[in-house]
Amino acid sequence: MVSIPNQPTLLEGASVRLEPLQHSHCRALQDAVQDGQLWQVWCTIVPKPEGMAQEIERRLKLQAAGSMLPYVVRVADNTVVGMTTYMNIDRSVPRVEIGSTWYAASAQRTGVNTAAKTLLLTHAFESMGCHCVEFRTHFLNQKSRKAIERLGAKLDGILRSHTRMPDGSLRDTCVYSIVAAEWPAVKMHLLHGLKR
């Protein structure tokens, strides 16, 4: 029977490599997050360079607890450009959320996100047997919402006053998903986009 593993699996594509997160990635991630000073974007939660070691430790603890499979995103020239995860893992369904994702400014709108998400979605549906993959973002984060919609995910709804942001404000969370029955068409759409 197919199931969600307890450790992340190396995922490789033509232009992107998703490596299981390790403490040794800290310096490369500190460099990546400074490209665009991503922690200053008010509607996202991205670690500052000086908080990267703590963020890596947080994600690895969640992995040990069985609720997260964290990755770093590496591109063809061997540069680490960000982080992504399977999170809120529910092995009883099974289902996962793809989230806690950020990319260096220079990697945004380059196809890196589409390539990484294609690897993650393929692995979720075809190797882990997921029935549903979820995405969540801030209601006001139009850039993230458009990126999720470009993948082919559908808006399930909005959770009002759902999460407290680092600045103390309450976030309305948009919940999107792709279900297994939709995956073949979504996969064709993603692969076609990657060829262009």
UniProtKB/TrEMBL annotation:
Single GO term (MF): acyltransferase activity, transferring groups other than amino-acyl groups
Pfam families per UniProt: Acetyltransf_3 (PF13302)
InterPro entries (UniProt xref): Acyl_CoA_acyltransferase, GNAT_dom
This protein's UniProt keywords: Transferase
Domain of life of the organism encoding this protein: Bacteria
Residues of the N-acetyltransferase domain: 8-175
PANTHER family tied to this protein: BLL6696 PROTEIN, N-ACETYLTRANSFERASE DOMAIN-CONTAINING PROTEIN
The protein, known as: Acetyltransferase
